[in-house]
Amino acid sequence: MPPGAKAYVDATELAERRSKGAKYRNKRTRSEILNRNFHSDGERRMAEYLYAMEQDGDISDLKFQVSVTLLGCVTMRPDFSYIEDGELIHHEFKGFPTDTWRLQKKLWSQVGPTEYRVSTKGQLWPAGEIIRPRPSDELCRYVERFLGAR
Fold first, then answer.
1. What residue segments make up the domains of the chain, in order of their start?
2. How many Cβ atoms are within 10 Å of 62's Cβ, its own excluded?
3. CATH code of the region 23-148
4. Which of 4, 9, 27, 133 is the most exposed place for a label (fewest CB within 10 A)?
Protein backbone atom coordinates (compact mmCIF):
# COMPACT_ATOMS: atom_id res chain seq x y z
CA MET A 1 0.00 0.00 0.00
CA PRO A 2 1.46 3.42 -0.92
CA PRO A 3 2.37 5.81 1.90
CA GLY A 4 -0.55 7.95 3.04
CA ALA A 5 -3.18 5.62 1.52
CA LYS A 6 -6.05 4.61 3.78
CA ALA A 7 -6.78 0.94 4.28
CA TYR A 8 -10.26 -0.24 3.39
CA VAL A 9 -12.06 -2.04 6.20
CA ASP A 10 -15.47 -3.50 5.45
CA ALA A 11 -18.35 -3.14 7.91
CA THR A 12 -18.26 -6.83 8.96
CA GLU A 13 -14.58 -6.66 9.95
CA LEU A 14 -15.15 -3.40 11.81
CA ALA A 15 -18.07 -4.93 13.76
CA GLU A 16 -15.91 -7.94 14.68
CA ARG A 17 -13.13 -5.67 15.97
CA ARG A 18 -15.57 -3.72 18.12
CA SER A 19 -17.23 -6.82 19.55
CA LYS A 20 -13.98 -8.18 21.02
CA GLY A 21 -14.39 -5.92 24.04
CA ALA A 22 -11.84 -4.41 26.38
CA LYS A 23 -8.29 -5.64 26.63
CA TYR A 24 -8.60 -6.72 30.28
CA ARG A 25 -12.29 -7.75 30.10
CA ASN A 26 -13.45 -4.75 32.08
CA LYS A 27 -16.87 -3.39 31.22
CA ARG A 28 -17.53 0.30 31.23
CA THR A 29 -20.30 1.04 33.67
CA ARG A 30 -22.42 4.03 34.55
CA SER A 31 -23.01 5.37 38.02
CA GLU A 32 -26.47 6.79 38.38
CA ILE A 33 -25.44 8.32 41.72
CA LEU A 34 -22.57 10.29 40.18
CA ASN A 35 -24.11 10.62 36.71
CA ARG A 36 -20.92 9.57 34.90
CA ASN A 37 -19.25 6.57 33.27
CA PHE A 38 -16.34 4.58 34.69
CA HIS A 39 -13.82 2.20 33.12
CA SER A 40 -14.95 -0.76 35.22
CA ASP A 41 -17.53 -1.83 37.77
CA GLY A 42 -14.85 -1.87 40.48
CA GLU A 43 -13.83 1.71 39.71
CA ARG A 44 -17.51 2.73 39.82
CA ARG A 45 -17.98 1.07 43.22
CA MET A 46 -14.83 2.78 44.55
CA ALA A 47 -16.07 6.15 43.24
CA GLU A 48 -19.47 5.71 44.89
CA TYR A 49 -17.78 4.72 48.15
CA LEU A 50 -15.53 7.81 48.07
CA TYR A 51 -18.54 9.97 47.18
CA ALA A 52 -20.37 8.64 50.27
CA MET A 53 -17.29 9.47 52.36
CA GLU A 54 -17.30 12.98 50.91
CA GLN A 55 -21.00 13.37 51.76
CA ASP A 56 -20.24 12.23 55.35
CA GLY A 57 -17.43 14.79 55.61
CA ASP A 58 -14.62 12.23 55.92
CA ILE A 59 -12.95 13.51 52.73
CA SER A 60 -13.39 16.60 50.56
CA ASP A 61 -12.70 17.87 47.04
CA LEU A 62 -13.19 14.49 45.32
CA LYS A 63 -11.96 14.60 41.71
CA PHE A 64 -11.73 12.00 38.96
CA GLN A 65 -8.89 11.23 36.53
CA VAL A 66 -6.56 14.08 37.51
CA SER A 67 -3.25 14.16 35.60
CA VAL A 68 -0.04 14.12 37.64
CA THR A 69 3.35 14.64 36.01
CA LEU A 70 6.37 12.91 37.52
CA LEU A 71 9.89 14.11 36.68
CA GLY A 72 8.46 16.41 34.04
CA CYS A 73 8.12 13.59 31.52
CA VAL A 74 5.88 10.81 32.86
CA THR A 75 2.19 11.52 33.23
CA MET A 76 -0.03 9.36 35.40
CA ARG A 77 -3.76 9.71 35.76
CA PRO A 78 -4.89 8.20 39.07
CA ASP A 79 -8.59 7.38 39.18
CA PHE A 80 -9.31 9.69 42.13
CA SER A 81 -7.86 12.51 44.15
CA TYR A 82 -9.26 13.99 47.35
CA ILE A 83 -8.35 15.78 50.56
CA GLU A 84 -8.24 13.72 53.75
CA ASP A 85 -7.19 15.30 57.05
CA GLY A 86 -5.78 18.28 55.16
CA GLU A 87 -3.56 16.12 52.91
CA LEU A 88 -3.99 15.56 49.16
CA ILE A 89 -4.35 11.85 48.37
CA HIS A 90 -4.27 10.15 44.97
CA HIS A 91 -6.13 6.86 44.78
CA GLU A 92 -6.17 4.15 42.12
CA PHE A 93 -8.52 1.22 41.67
CA LYS A 94 -6.67 -1.65 40.00
CA GLY A 95 -8.49 -4.66 38.66
CA PHE A 96 -5.48 -5.92 36.72
CA PRO A 97 -1.92 -4.67 37.32
CA THR A 98 -0.03 -4.08 34.05
CA ASP A 99 3.72 -3.81 33.55
CA THR A 100 3.37 -0.11 32.72
CA TRP A 101 1.43 0.53 35.91
CA ARG A 102 4.01 -1.38 37.99
CA LEU A 103 6.73 0.87 36.58
CA GLN A 104 4.68 4.01 37.25
CA LYS A 105 3.97 2.83 40.79
CA LYS A 106 7.69 2.32 41.41
CA LEU A 107 8.42 5.78 40.03
CA TRP A 108 5.68 7.27 42.25
CA SER A 109 7.29 5.65 45.29
CA GLN A 110 10.44 7.63 44.52
CA VAL A 111 9.20 11.00 43.27
CA GLY A 112 5.41 11.09 43.71
CA PRO A 113 3.97 14.35 45.01
CA THR A 114 1.52 12.77 47.47
CA GLU A 115 0.48 9.55 49.13
CA TYR A 116 -0.79 7.04 46.54
CA ARG A 117 -3.37 4.48 47.58
CA VAL A 118 -4.27 1.39 45.62
CA SER A 119 -7.51 -0.55 46.02
CA THR A 120 -8.38 -3.82 44.34
CA LYS A 121 -11.49 -5.89 43.69
CA GLY A 122 -11.25 -7.64 47.03
CA GLN A 123 -10.50 -4.59 49.15
CA LEU A 124 -11.97 -1.20 48.38
CA TRP A 125 -11.41 0.39 51.78
CA PRO A 126 -9.08 0.74 53.49
CA ALA A 127 -6.75 0.72 50.52
CA GLY A 128 -4.88 -2.52 50.05
CA GLU A 129 -1.61 -0.71 49.43
CA ILE A 130 -0.40 2.72 50.50
CA ILE A 131 2.65 4.21 48.83
CA ARG A 132 4.37 7.09 50.58
CA PRO A 133 7.04 8.63 48.34
CA ARG A 134 10.54 8.19 49.77
CA PRO A 135 13.40 8.83 47.40
CA SER A 136 16.07 6.15 47.64
CA ASP A 137 19.62 7.10 48.56
CA GLU A 138 20.67 6.09 45.05
CA LEU A 139 18.18 8.47 43.45
CA CYS A 140 19.23 11.28 45.81
CA ARG A 141 22.91 10.74 44.91
CA TYR A 142 22.06 10.75 41.21
CA VAL A 143 20.10 14.01 41.52
CA GLU A 144 22.90 15.59 43.58
CA ARG A 145 25.47 14.57 40.95
CA PHE A 146 23.22 15.87 38.17
CA LEU A 147 22.61 19.21 39.88
CA GLY A 148 26.26 19.51 40.87
CA ALA A 149 27.33 19.00 37.25
CA ARG A 150 25.46 22.10 36.09
1. 23-148
2. 17
3. 3.40.1350
4. 4
